[in-house]
Specification:
By secondary structure, the protein is mainly beta. Helices cover 11% and strands 40% of the residues. It has a domain of 177 residues: Beta Barrel (Lipocalin), CATH 2.40.128.
């Protein structure tokens, strides 16, 4: 018998032998392991007692506030130095001051007796005068008066009764004693000046009497001799322009409204 067939027969015998044994006694499945008893629960530990709260520390007293230092006074602002006026161009300017002892101011007014113009003039004079002026002599002269004041209450005439009524009734110079003239311009000055030469010109300005100010013009004649100026200034004043009426005495004596005012002056260079 060929060898191939011999192997096939042997295999069949082996299968015939083994298969019945497998079907007669099935192998039992292994038993499930017995359930182990669950471990008894362990007792929960008793809660530990909470520690008693410790007493809160008493609050410490707040420190008293220290007094704020008094504010130091701010240093006073030092006054800014007053601005000094820029010096004017003084080249050629010379300043002169009135000498009261050598100067007179006077009024002259026409009195009318029984409505007849008689050649009589009432005149009052004073030497209570202050003031100064300046001018140039280089090139064309210029004139400038700073201020001239006259004390009207000191005017004296030849009749004390007239003087008292002027002070207390008509002019009221006891109440308004000061007359003041301040110039604003000069006209008619010569083109050149020679020392010792007489000069004539008009001085224009403002005259204040009884606290009333009006324009006024004075005709000036003057001579410069070294450091001294002498001369006269003549103008007119209308009484009613300054708030008072011309005097009248019972209709027998009346006074014109216009008064001639004259300043005869001496001034020395200062």
């Amino acid at each position: 018998m060929p060898r191939r067939w011999t192997m096939l027969v042997l295999l069949g015998v082996i299968l015939t032998w083994t298969l019945p044994a497998c079907g007669a006694a099935p192998v039992a499945a292994p038993a499930a392991p017995a359930a182990t008893a669950a471990p008894e629960p362990t007792a929960m530990p008793e809660p530990t007692a909470m520690p008693e709260p410790t007493a809160m520390p008493e609050p410490t007293a707040m420190p008293e506030p220290t007094a704020m230092p008094e504010p130091t006074a701010a240093p006073e602002a030092t006054a800014a130095p007053e601005a000094t006026a820029a010096p004017e161009a003084t080249a050629g300017y010379r300043e002169f001051r009135i000498v009261p002892e050598q100067t007179t101011a006077s009024y002259a007014v026409q009195e009318i007796f029984l409505r007849q113009n008689l050649p009589f003039r009432a005149i009052g004079v004073t030497q209570e005068i202050e003031g100064s002026f300046r001018f140039t002599t280089d090139g064309q002269p210029t004139g400038e008066v700073t201020e001239i004041t006259v004390n009207l209450a000191s005017l004296t005439s030849d009749d004390p009764r007239r003087d008292n009524r002027i002070r207390n009734e008509w002019l009221e110079s006891a109440r308004f004693p000061i007359a003041r003239f301040v110039s604003t311009s000069a006209s008619g000055l010569p083109e050149q000046y020679t020392d010792g030469e007489e000069v004539q010109f008009e001085l224009v300005g403002e005259l204040t009497i009884r606290d009333i100010t009006r324009p006024a013009t004075f005709a000036v004649t003057g001579v410069l001799d070294g450091d001294t100026v002498t001369g006269t200034a003549v103008g007119t004043v209308v009484m009613s322009d300054y708030g008072f009426d011309p005097p009248s005495i019972g209709g027998f004596v009346e006074v014109e409204d216009t008064v001639e005012v004259t300043l005869e002056f001496t001034a020395v260079e200062s």
